[in-house]
## 1
Amino acid sequence: MKITEIHKEKKQVLSFEIFPPKKDDELLDIRDTLDILCELNPDFISVTFGAGGSSNNNKTIELAKMIKNDYHVEPVVHLTCLCYDQKEIDTFSKVLQEEGIQNILALRGDHNPKVPEKNDFKHASDLITYLKTKSDFCIAGACYPECHPDSLNRVDEMRNLKKKVDAGAEVLLSQLFFDNNYFYRFVEDCRIAGIDVPVTPGIMPVINAAQIKRMVTMCGASLPERFQKIINRFEGDKNALFDAGMAYALSQIIDLLANDVEGIHLYTMNNPVVARKICEGIKNIIK
């Protein structure tokens, strides 16, 4: 099923993101995580994608097949394009179509000095345009409530996002953020710009100090004073920071759901304990 169809059927969609293991023998271990995640009845699970692999050794595709065939949950395959040419994208697309996978999250991908970049696709919108001419995938796009690190300003951000939607992105999944006001303002800007597709907030429960520092550096998310105080107070106590980080994420999610967002996309970091605690906290709230 395409995730656009899921959004038509449900007022608020619940989804998870996981990443494939680095080693082949760890692919079996991830079943323990999937066993728990799929008990929680997500509407779909997205699987991240690393640059540099071929369709023959791509663990993202293997994991997506497992989610679809063994757990009967819709997978959304991340597909980056900066390091691939049209022929390689065609090969990936063919494999996904043969496996009955209907949903792609189209991404530019990060610059990686270890993997040479190619010239066919410079932006996610280029990939979306190309895929729409060659296939019938439901394509999701990424969005940044606090602006993409490469954006010049909010106007530039909206202009580029509108280009992505006009190219064929049918759903938007947001990067993580820690202040819901950024998301509400972002959605308002989207609607003013004529972007009327579902915009789903992405939430990552932060359970250790190293994680928060790494993620803030990578995506440019700002830390509200309230959250910074939590980190400062509890970063020396692993268990206390876990509890505090979970409570903060739950408070974010409950506020978002109360304000009628169209879903919650949970960045699980392959931690089923985190996913279970979050879902237990909202099982009577998300509709």
Note: The chain has a mean pLDDT of 91.
## 2
Amino acid sequence: MTSMKKYVAEFIGTAVLTGVGCGTAMLVGCAADAGCGYILTAFAFGLSIVAMAYSIGNISGCHINPAVSLGVLMSGGMSTSEFVGYVVAQVLGAFCGSAVDAVIFGLGGVTDMTGGFGANGLAGVNGSAIAGLVVELVLTFIFVTTILGVTDSKFKHGSFAGLVIGLTLFFVHIFGIGLTGTSVNPARSIAPAVFAAFTGNAAPLASLWVFIVGPLAGAALAAAVYKYLRAE
């Protein structure tokens, strides 16, 4: 499969994840005391992964997340140049997803229940960047470790991999939404933060570094730990 087709697949997948996941949060809200919206948002992100895993997974591996791509890179599953191409495609795809949300919720007159394009924030951890980093690092570690394990060619998980990965993303969102909004994905965080800033809400952009550093650190740790555990 040519690299360009992989990049296009990653663009599409990340656009779907960001557009549908963040769009659901914008539509139903995801406050911890609003159980229905909270769970629906978690499901939207998890099911987006399932849908994309079984559609573009055979093309690009369905990373649709720079943190996942970093984990694969550190595990020897891709080259540095391919990693860069994946990340660029993922970020552009996330912007496409947020742009679609902007059209729907801006021009369409639909109420944005989150007030910020489904962007991540630190309100649930009382504004603490350290707590936010810990949450994102731990949740990304769990998510990426699961991906590395379930896609490991040494073990035969077969056609269940996409479902397991989607359910794991749902699982980490259940814990993380009320704390940071759950990123575990820098691309998914960058685009909504930028769009929120354009509408006058600069708070997500100010804390954006947490949702870049935390997931990447968690992914790097996951790759290192899994590599150690898997070694003969």
Note: The first helix runs from residue 3 to 28.
## 3
Amino acid sequence: MQTRRLFLNLSAVAFLAGTIGTFSAHAAQPPVFATNGVAIHGYDPVAYFTMSRPVEGDAAITSDLEGATFRFANAEHKALFDADPEKYAPKYGGYCAYAVSKGATAMTVPEAWSIHDGRLYLNYSTGVRRTWLKDVAGNIQRADANWPGVLGP
């Protein structure tokens, strides 16, 4: 079991490394990672704080930020976000925080998340999140130094 887990973690990191190279080779990235204009794959950013889990947002309850649409599970979450978007929006525009710490960008999944010092961080996968969590403070310091430079000119 330990060997299988190690293999899966190494595979995720290797895949992320390939993905990082692919994403960073593109021209300037948008400030918020979005799929078809929707941030966090349609999940509610406020729910991570209030419900401690990813919750799908309602397409009828939205706010726009930096060219991306955020969806919310209810009007209360939308109001909280609108009052303080920096508090609730994922750090690094919702790009993989670990990738940003390595000087690149990568997509994320809603299930690979953590909150540290009141900020939401998303990762490429739960395996990458495990790697991120091994040195959160160091990874944040490196990511902060790279952001927003990794987005391009």
Note: The first strand starts at residue 34 and ends at 35.
